Amino acid sequence: MLVLVAALGVAIHARQVQPAPQAQAMTAEAGTPEFFEVRVRPILAANCYDCHTDNPKAGLRLDSREAILKGGASGPAIEPGKPDESLLIKAVRREPKAPEMPSGRPKLKDDDIKALVDWVSAGAPWPASTPASAAKPAMTITAEHRAFWAFQPITSTPPPAVKDGSWPRTGIDRFILARLEREGLRPVAAADKPTLIRRASLDLTGLPPTPEEMDAFLADKSPTAFDKVVDRLLASPRYGEAWARVWLDVARFAEDDYRSLDPSGRGFASYPNAYLYRDWVVRAFNDDLPYDQFVKAQLAADLLDEPSRVRHLPALGFLGLGPWYYDNGAVEITRADERNDRVDAVSRGLLGLTVACARCHDHKYDPIPTNDYYALAGVFLNSPYHEYPLAPKTVVDDYKAQEKKIEKKEELLGEYLSRESKQLAETLAFQSAKYMQAAWRVAGEPKADKARTVDAQKLDYELFDRWLRFLDKPPAFYPFLKAWQELVKAGGTAAEAKRLSEQFQELVLDVLLEKRAIDEENDIIRAKALPGTKKKERANLPNEFITNDDFCPGCGLELKSLPNERMNLWTDVFARDLDSMVVAGQDPTRAKSALLVFRGWGLERQLGPDRRSLIESLRADIKTMRDALPEKYAYIHGVRDIEKPVDLKVSVRGSAFRLGDEAPRGFLSIFSPGEPLRFTRGSGRLEMAEAILRQPIAMRVMVNRIWKAHMGTGLVDTPSNFGKNGERPTNPELLEYLSQRFIDHKLSIKALHREIMLSAVYQLSSATLPANAEKDSGNRLYWRAETHRLSAEQIRDAVIAVSGVLDTRMGGPSVPLTPLSGRRTIYGKVSRYKLDEFLQLFDFPSPSQSAEKRFATNVPLQRLFFMNSEFMQQQAERVAEKIRAEKDDTARIRKAYRLIFGRAPTPAEEAAGRQFLSVEPMKQYEEKKAEQVKAASADKASKPAAPAEPPDAADAGPPGMMAGVTPGAGALGDDKEKLPVTVLGRYVKVLLSSNEFLFVK
Amino acid sequence: MHKGPPPVTRRDALCRIGGGFGMMAFASLVGDSLAAAGFDARQATGGVHHPARAKRVIFLFMNGGLSQVDSFDPKPALTQYHGHPLPGGQIATERKTGMLLKSPFTFKKYGQSGIEVSELFPYVGECIDDICVVRSVQTDIPNHEPSMLMMNTGHTQAGRPSLGSWLTYGLGTENQNLPGYVVLCPTMPTTVGPPLWNGAFLPAVHQGTFIPSKVERADQIIGKEFDPKKLIQFIYNKDFALPEQRRELDLLARLDQLREVAEPRDPQLEAALKSMEVAFRMQTEAPEVFDIRKESEATLKLYGSGSTARGCLMAVRLAERGVRMVQVYYAAGDPWDHHADILEHRKNAKDSDQPFAAVIKDLKSRGLFKDTLVVCGSEFGRTPVVEVGAGAGSIQNGRDHNPFGFTVWLAGGGVKGGMTYGATDDFGFKAVENPVHVHDLHATILHLLGIDHTKLTYRFSGRDFRLTDVSGKVIQDIIA
Q1: pTM of the entire structure?
Q2: Which chain B residues have a beta carbon less than 8 Å from that of A701?
Q3: Predicted complex ipTM exceeds 0.85
Q4: Cis link prior to A446 (omega < 30° from 0)?
Q5: Which positions in chain B touch A555 (Cβ < 8 Å)?
Q6: In this structure, which of A535, A718, A963, B118 has its CB flanked by the most CB atoms within 10 Å?
C-alpha cells in the first residue's frame, strides 16, 4: 500500500509541473481488481450512474469497459493509458471545451479524480468477474447453502442414554444431561420449593405467588404438587397477560408513530385502538391458540374463512400497527421503508432470517438474493393500511354523518365569527381619524384625561387603549406614522392632528381596498392551480400525507402581495401585531392581535344582542349534538389487499429510484428445491403464512423463543437470527426434540411450557459449582438456573400485587402507568414517540423494531427510582396499612415477610427490622409528618380546591410512573388517596427494594 | 469441550457500558476485566481506535435553520444582484421562492484570520480565531423533521441511535454519577422531540437525558425560584433528608447481606448494592452540577441572560464533570425558521451570540477547550432567495429551507481555529467546494473523539449499524 501511495504521489507531482507523462507513472496496484472495486467503481456509481446506465445520457453508458470504449455522441469516453486524452477525465477535471461532469454537481474531489486518472493510466482494466450490467446475476443457491443446519427437516432422535439415570425426569433432561456428561459437568441440586414456586409464578404469570399459594404448595407433599402448580398457573388469565409481552416484543407492538405533520399536532400519531391487537394476543395465549393459527391470523386474518375471520381480525395489528413513517419529501423511500419494516418483522420474527439485509444487495451470509426480498416486499406493497370498524355499517355511517354535521356547524360558526370580526375591523377603520385625534388630545399638552375623553367622544375603551399603544410604538415596519409621531413630539396644533389623522385614515382604507383586490386575484390563482375546487378530504390515515401539498394545499403557490410596507401596515392593523410577533420570538403564541381585530368576547360584546344570541344558540346546538354523539366505535388497525395486485421491481442497490427487473410476489428461494414458490392469491399474505408454517425453521424459532423466555438463554441465543451469522444451537438434538414435540402437540404453546417446566433442568437451583463455572461460565449447557432481575413489567406488577392495588380487569384501552394505577403493566401505553420512562428505565425494548431479547441492566437511576419515587413509597404505605394492626413490631415484620417474600424472617432479620422501626428520631419524624398532613388536609377542606397548575404542555407528556417527582405532574391516578409517609412504610419499601424481591433465582 | 461464551463477550460488554449512569451496568458484568473486553486502547489513549483529540462534545443547536448568508457566509454578490433571479434558474426547496435577497446585516472581519462574521454574532466574531467555519455542509431533505433527525441520528426517519448515544456507547463515561448524554432546551425541543436523543436499539442507558433549561425570567440567567434538584427525576426525596435515607440503605444492605450468608454471592446482586451507593451519592452530586448559582458573578456575566445562556453555562459545567455529550437547543419548535422575515434572526442571535462565545471563553479558562469539541449549527441553512409562497406570510422578507449548502462551525477539541473550510457558490445556495455531508461531519466528530466511524457498529436485526450508515468521510483538513 505504501508503494502505491508513494507512486501516486509522484504521479500527482509530475502532473502539476507539466503535462503528465502518460502511462509510465502508473503502478501495478492501480490496475488491480481491488483498486477498481475499492476506488474506481464507487466513484462511477456515486457520480455517474444516475444518468449513464440504463437511461444513458448522450448515448453513453459507463457501466462496462466495452460501453465506455464505445463511448457516446462525443466519441469514446476514455483512451486506455492516456488519461489526458480521455474525455471522461477531461470532463471531471472540468477542462474547457469538455462537458462539465458530473453534471449539476460539485466537481469531484481531487483524490477521486486522481484515482480515475490512475485507473485510466493503468489501461482502465475492468475485472472480468463483474458483468456488464449494473445488476449482478442472481445469486445462485448452492447445495452447500441448502445443507445449512437451520434449513434441514426436523430430525428428532429419541432421548439419549445417560450415566446418571436417577436425575432425568423427562426427555429434555436426558438431552441436557447427556451433553453435560460429555463435558464432564454435573447439574447442581434442585431448587427448594419456595424458590421453585416463586420462579414458576413469575415466569408464567408475571406475579409472585400469594402467601396462600405458597402455603398450599409447601403443604402438598404429593409427587405431582408442582404439576398442579404449573397447571393452575397455565389456566390463570394472568398467564396470557405475561406471555403476550414475549410476543409483543417480537411484534414491535406500539400505539403510535412519530409523525410530526400530524393533524393533531402533538408530534405523534396515535392508534387509538391498538389495544385490540394487544388484547387479541393475550387471549390467544390464554386460549392456547395453536401456533399455526396464531401466525396465520396475524398475517392474513382478513383472508380466513368465517368465523375465524371475524374472531381473529384484530390480529392484523401485527402488520397494521407497524410503523407508518412520516413522509419526508421522498414518498418512494418512505413507502419502501415501511415495507422494509414488514419484511423485517415477518422474516426475523417468524423465520429467524434477516431478509431485510437483502434490500440493497444479496444477503452477505445467508442464501437470500435481493430478488427474494422484493418478492416478499411485494406482498406488503399490496397490503396497505386499512381500518375495520367494529360496529355494524349503519352505526358507522350514522356516526360519520353526525360527525360531519357537527363539523359543518362548527365551520359555519367559525366563518360567521370571522366574518363579523372582519366587518367590525373594517367599520372601525372608518373611525381611525376620530380615535387618532382623541389620542392626540390625551398625549398632547395640555393632557386631556383619558377616561373623560373616552366618555366625551363615545369611544370604546379597549380600542382606544389599543390606538394609544399603536400610535406610540416606533415604526419598525413602515414609515407611515412618522409624521404623526413627530407632530405629537413637537406639540403641534389640533388642525394638524386632524389633517394627519385623516390622511392616515385614508391610507388605511386604501390599503384595505388594495388587499381586497389582491385577495381576489389570489383566489383565482389558487382556483386555477389546485385541480378542482374541492379540498381533499382528510381521512387521517397513516400513509395519507403523500406530499407537502397534501399537508398544506397551496403553500407552494406563488401568490401576489402588496408592496412590503403597505402589506406590513395591513398586517399590523387587520391581521396580527407585527411587533409582538418578533418580540415573542421564542414563543409565537404570545403574539398580540392586530389593532382593529377583535375576537372572542372582545368581538361579541360589540355585536349587539341579536347577533349575540344567534351565536349563543349555534353554540348550544353544537354542544347538544356533540353530547348526543355516541362514543366512537372501535376499529381495528389492519391491512387489506388491494384490488389489482402488482409486483415490485427490484431497487438496484436499494435505491427507490433505480428500478431493475420485476420480482414476482413469492417466497424465499431457499425454501423451494427448484423455482421459488410464487404467490398468486391477492397480495399473497395467506400463502406466505402457509409457506412460513411449512418450514422447520419456523418451528425451531418459536420453540427457541419459549425456551429462552423460561431459561434465560436460548438454545440459539440469537433468537431472531438462525442464519450463518447467528449462533449454532448449543444442544441441537434438544432443539430438534422440542420442535418435534411441539408439532406432536399440535403446536400447543401451553403443552410446551408444561414440557419444559416439568423437567429437572427447569427445577434446578441457582447455586453454582466452581468446576462447572470454570468450563461453562455462561451456563449455556444449563447446569443450573439463572438468577435474573425481574423485567419492568414484573417489577411493577409484583409490587402492586403485594400492595393489593392490583386490578385484575383485563383488556381495554391503554392507561397511563400512574403511581397508584392498579392495571397490569401490559395495559400501559406503549409509545414509539416517547416510551414510558419507567419502562425505559428497566430495559423495555424500543418498539420501533422487532426485538429478540431484553437487556437487564443495573444502573443507579433504577436505584433512585426505588429510593425516591412516589410509586414505591405509596405502594409500600399500602402494604404497611395491611400490617399496622399487628400487635407489635415483631409481628408486623413477620407479616411483612410473609406478604412480600412468602416466608418467615430469620431472627437476625427480625432484629434488623425492629431496630429500624424503633429508632427515636424516626418516630419524631413520623409524628411531625402526621401533624403536617393533618394541617394540610384541614387547610384543604377550608379552601375551595385551587385548580392544579397545568403541567407545561410541551414537557409533560402523558402522566406515568414518573409522576409525583416531576414538578407539575402530580397525578396519582385512579383517584386513590395518597397516604402519608410512615416509618413502617419506609421499612416495607426497603423490603420491596431488596434483591430478594427484585431478582428471581 | 463446549466453549460457552465468556461471561461477557466484547460485544456484550460494549452493549452494556454506560453513558454515564450505565457504567455500573458495565462494571457489574465484567468486573475489573475491562482489558479482557478489549478496552486497552480506550484506557490508554482516550480513544477506541486511535488517540482522541477531544473527550467530549458540546453541540449548540440553532434549530429551525440559521441563514448562512446572514451570519457566517458573506456573499457580496447577493447585495449586488439583489432583486434579480438566481442565475441558472431556480433550485427547488420546500416552498416557492423568488428573487435573490441581500442580507440586511453587515459583515465585519474579525481576529487575525480576518474571517467575516455578520453583525448578528459580534461576540462569536471575537472568538473567530478559535473557530473553524465549515461553509459547505449538506443534508438531504429541506424539511425540519428529517433534517433534524439526520443531523442527530444520521438517518432521516426516527428510530436510529443519536450521535450522543453512539458516543456514550463507544466511549463509556467519565462520571458515573451523571448521565453520559444530556440534552438542554427551555422546554421539550419538538417538533421532533425524544427521537432526537434516542438510543434506539442501543441499550437504554445510552438514551439522552432531557433537562429543561428554561429561565424563570428572560432577562436573568438565574431566577429566585431556581431549584436544581427539580431538574432530574428522583434525584431527591421530598419527604426526608439524606441521613434518614442513609438508614434505609443501611438496612437494605444489611438484609441483603443476611440473605447472602445463606446463599452464594451472585455478582449481579453485589452490583445492585454498589449501584445503590452510587445512587445515594448522585443525589448530592448531580444537582450540584446544575446549580449554576455556584458560579462567580464574573462567569454569570460572561454568559448574559436567557435560557440559551443558562443552557450554555450548564453545558460547560457538565462537560467539566465528564459528561460525554451535551446539546443545547435554542427553544421548542423551529424557532430559527424565519420564512417570513429574516430580520427575526436578530432576536434569536441576540439570545445566542454571547452565550456561544462564553462557551469558548469559559472552556478556555477552565482548561477544557483543547479536549472539548464545540459544534454549532442547524439542521440546514436558508435560501439566498426570498420566499414568496403563501407560507411566507405578509412580509416576504424571509428565506426558505436550504439543504444544499450551509454553515456549521466547530471549535476546540483538535479542530483548527481561524479557518474556513469549503465554500458555497457566489450566492450561498449550494456547496461547490469541498462539500461536507452530515455523514462527513459525523465521521469527523467521531474521529476527533478517537473513533473510526466505520468501526463503531452495533449489530441489530442482522446488520451492523453505524452512525454514518454506509458513507462518511473524515475531513482531515480541519484537524489541527
Answers
A1: 0.75
A2: none
A3: no
A4: yes
A5: 95, 389-391
A6: A963
